[in-house]
Amino acid sequence: MKQFAVALTLFCTAASAAHAQNYLSKVPSKSSVVIKYSGDNFSKNVPLQKIDSYSFIKQNFFKMLQIDTLTSLKNIGINFEQDTYQYITMEDSSLNFVTLLHLNNVQQFLQLIKGAYKTGTATKTEKRNGFDFIAIDATTYIGWNEISAVIVHTTYQNKRNYYDYLYSPENTATDSAVAVVDAAAVAVDTAVSFTPPKIVKDKKPAAQKAPVKNKPVAKTKTAAKKPAVKKVQPEEIILEAPATEDNKYHIQDSINNLKRELWEQQQDMIAKKKQQEVAEKIMTTAFTGTVNSIEKELSYTKIIDPAAHASVWFNAESLTRQYWKSMYGGLFYGMGKKQQYTQDTTTGFKSSANIYFEKNKMRIEQKTFSADALLANMGKDIMNSKQNTGLVKYVNPDNVGYFSMSINTEAMANYYYTVMKKYMANTFYMNDYADIVNVYIDLVEILIDEKGIADLMPGNVLFVLHDLKPTLVNYTDYEYDKDFNSKQVQKTKKELSPSFTFIMETRKEGFMQKIANLPLKYAEKEHFDYKDKGGYYELAFDSGKYPIRSLYFIVKDGKAIVTTSKEVVDMTLNNTGFATDADSKNSILNNNYSLKLNSKRLMERLGTEFTTDVNKKISDYVMENIGDVKMESSLKDGIIQGTTTMNINGNHSNSLEFFFNMIDTINNIIEKEKQEKEKSVN
Predict the structure, then answer these.
(1) Which percentage of the chain shows pLDDT scores above 70?
(2) pTM of this prediction?
(3) In which element (H, E) is residue 279 found?
(4) How far apart are the first and last CA of the chain?
């Protein structure tokens, strides 16, 4: 059933669409994530008729949704020509993932979700104020009226832990859940009685003596006839086992296990009730209530483009706390700590990604913004940096890819203190001591020399992947005879050997030189080959043991360099460099972040790793259809902004259609391989 609900949510949003009724007004301002799928632009890029034709849609999504493969997406009751929204929020201690859909035919929509009834896990449809309601399972709920539907997937976060209750000093019998468990435990204690096992001991029958009559008093002794000896069955000698301490322990252990099971059942019942209450509350607000919407929030409107084909907005700090609570909150029960959700009242950084599916590329515009002046200025200070021109010459024209970063590390260190104070103040196991933590962090700030850190690492870094080449590597394998005795066998295999360079600018050249020189003292003792080569250092690896033969270290002209390329070492010593192309040079020098990936070259190099026919066919398709990837980010108009583009090759109407075509092609390749294997087996 959960598979049905997930498939329905994914499918509806994957094909969704644009403008009529504004569902953004139904998205609450306290959401940590908001996703929009624009129908007008979206549906024009890949029409429903086109989506109908993809085999993976019919074979996978239709199957999960229990839709007949002859059915068209036009006839499932969902209006794909209007916007679809999804959001994540914390409501009454429940983490909720909500989907808002437009309907154009309620009966067809009910036909779509009727699969929920077939499994027997869904409840009957219930009438609510202004909408119909159904519980698909304990965590998934659907509500709808004539024009819209709301899908809520919710998880209650405040389930109490049994051992937290058991060892808590605040444990009282007035708690309803405690009362239920204790009452059940009493019933168990009185109902469970223990009878020690009966031990039956076999014994051989003793020899039977003929009965002898007593001599009559004052009578003459007379002989009596001996009666026939009768066979007597041996009696069972039953030994009662004493109630030992071990038996008592097992009894108590069984009772404790039952108590815990009852407790967990009670917590599941509480969670289910809370989840349904939250789901109904969300739906009631969406259908008939007034929402304090995010549509008028500056942190949303400033960084979200309504014209984008799809967009994602998220509050990074809120999302991180929700994830931490959901995944790791229970770890602190053993420490006697209570879970609690603390709503951050300050304005942190909000980020967005506006996605555009254009003709020959997919473009993603990223923006990060804070309405808080202090944080906004800190962000500006961090981005107040320019890349060192001396690093650009290490980018070779035919490289596989590079990544350049230029930030102000002194400003980053100052920002770190603010973030730590904020984090501690809103962390459930530290917030009671936030004032002490603040003093401690202030002390750390006094002791640490941010200027010294900035001199050691100013924040200008460059990584270049020059090439990837196959090389032979030795390895040990084992062969077994018929008696399963193993024998070591030395073999060789091909592995990719990366040629790369990592460069970091430094103003503490003397200190970095000491670090590079330090291993010389311990090389012989620790049995590694590290030598001073005059102007640079070489760490050599055993030939044939690793794909990398040597690592070179050099500190020169305010640069600390680690590389596998002897050519780069020679260039540095001779003050020369590669003839870097103009586009890469401009991108590196004019942005705080710059990344470029030559997708075709990367796939060509990785091709040696693809050994099966399926992998080769998939890699060939990807190599023919995906172009270069490029990312740039800098400070513009007081906002941290970035652009990522992925070029598209091949015969596709636009980049969105490319993704559908790629998934369909890969699916067909895999399915064909399966069919061929089945034929060969038969």
Answers:
(1) 78
(2) 0.79
(3) helix 245-288
(4) 34
